[in-house]
Amino acid sequence: DSGVTQTPKHLITATGQRVTLRCSPRSGDLSVYWYQQSLDQGLQFLIHYYNGEERAKGNILERFSAQQFPDLHSELNLSSLELGDSALYFCASSPWTDSNYGYTFGSGTRLTVV
Amino acid sequence: DAKTTQPNSMESNEEEPVHLPCNHSTISGTDYIHWYRQLPSQGPEYVIHGLTSNVNNRMASLAIAEDRKSSTLILHRATLRDAAVYYCIHWGGNYGQNFVFGPGTRLSVLP
Questions:
Q1: Which of A92, A99, A110 sits opposite B92 (nearest CB)?
Q2: What phi, psi does A79 have (nearest 5°)?
């Protein structure tokens, strides 16, 4: 157990639908990062929150949004889902943005869009 | 984006040492070098990291070149459980920066 909790572990939904993925960071970590991993793309950075504030955006689609709450957990919202959104979604956390500290990853949410 | 270059794949025999190379020629002076590995259907897990000096932990050793433009992850005795994709990342932790994952090296361990 890495200390980063992601729910649900698996999600199957239909095209056009909206889903919410949840991430609880490791205790004490202020930063939360979201990554998408599909078969042909590798690990792609989506977005980073630090203590409730958005810090960086990667190749995140406009249909996707995220937020970090006062208790530091984060949610990734995916809407108008398409078949191509099927992927593993990973959340990671770190204490802050000091580069001497690495990321701790959760075990991911596997999203299947049918 | 912070770029690294690694071999696509490597193969090793069980219980033999493995040296996984990484080139990071664009590294900045304050960037740490991090190594992660990912087993099938799992999230990446931390292996080791360092700045300038060679580093050792229970999982592996990290040898960093004097000019810091390359590094080598050393698994002293590969086991079947070490079969994974290994990622080398350099990261400065500055505002707006984040881990950039390349394709990594897929390590196969033969019994």
A1: A99
A2: -125, 170
pLDDT at B96 over 70: no
Q: Do A42 and B45 count as a contact with CB atoms less than 8 A apart?
A: no
Residue A95 structure tokens:
């204490």
Separation of alpha carbons B1 and B34, rounded Å: 15
Residues 80-109 of B with CB under 8 A from A: 87, 91-104
Sheet holding A19-24, edge to edge: A5-7, A19-24, A74-78, A64-68
The SS3 of residue A102 is coil
- Tell me: the pLDDT tens digits for A32-91? 999 999 986 789 999 999 999 998 899 899 999 999 999 999 999 999 999 999 999 999
Encoded tokens for B28: 């900045």
Contact A45, A33 (CB under 8 A): yes
Backbone angles phi, psi at A58, to 5 degrees: -105, -140
List CB contacts of B35: < 8 A, sequence separation 6 or more. Answer: B20, B22, B46, B47, B48, B49, B60, B62, B71, B73, B86, B87, B88, B89
Task: Give B 16-35 residues with CB within 8 A of chain A.
Answer: 30-32, 34
- CB atoms under 10 Å from CB of A14, counted, come to 8
